[in-house]
Design a protein that fits this description.
single chain; alpha/beta; seven-stranded parallel sheet; about 50% helix
Amino acid sequence: MSTHPSFLNRYGPWALVTGASDGIGQSFAVALARRGMDVVLVARRREKLESLAQKMRQEHSVQCRVVAADLTTAEGLAAVLEATSELEVGLAVCAAGFGTAGPFLDGDLDNELNLLQLNCGATTALSWHFGKRLATRGQGGLILLSSIVAFQGVPRSAHYAASKAYVQTLAEGLQLEWRGRGIDVLAVAPGPVNTGFASRSQLNMGKAESPDVVAEQSLKGLGRGGTVRPGMLSKLLGYSLAMTPRWGRTRIMGLVMRGMTRHQHA
């Protein structure tokens, strides 16, 4: 087991990771276990969580607790709170989320409302509940998954971008609001990442970053600033658009998204 005493002292002994069954959430869980953290794994698919938990126990000698829950429901959120009620959780990573792409009016309204509840509603609820616990504890951290699309409107991904703008703004506000309480808040704004996100969103992505890079660079940035752009793609896209007016960024991102969704109407 590789231990990081200062990290453990501030954010341990337990971390909560939502969306832990694959992608960025799974990479966060493994990276935290590598640092000696015990981890509560949350996602809908119990089998994948149990398999990951077993692997983490064997490779890193940490404790793992599995919570199979749908965070778009009140029952799912209650299950997470109940499963962690007796644990000293010092770090919450809200990585659960999904996206949609294509013309907004061609989408399914129920799917869009589920996106809103997961990306925004569940993130807000978990931030409030675990924020209270961290404030009582006097130290800890909260990591929220934003995106490169959070900083402007994005045609053909308008609702997903709006949900990530919500998360980004929430994290920025809480980062300053909670600083005096000893809580480090971090917004993670990656660009394209090689996960199952693209297939669910019906996106045709070209170059994409590894989720392991996203997790590692995010954890290294925790406590050092309010937003991290993990990976070269995110940094390149973010800084190249930084000086462009918001309306210009919206047009540019619309052209990018048009290319990534062209196959939907081929």
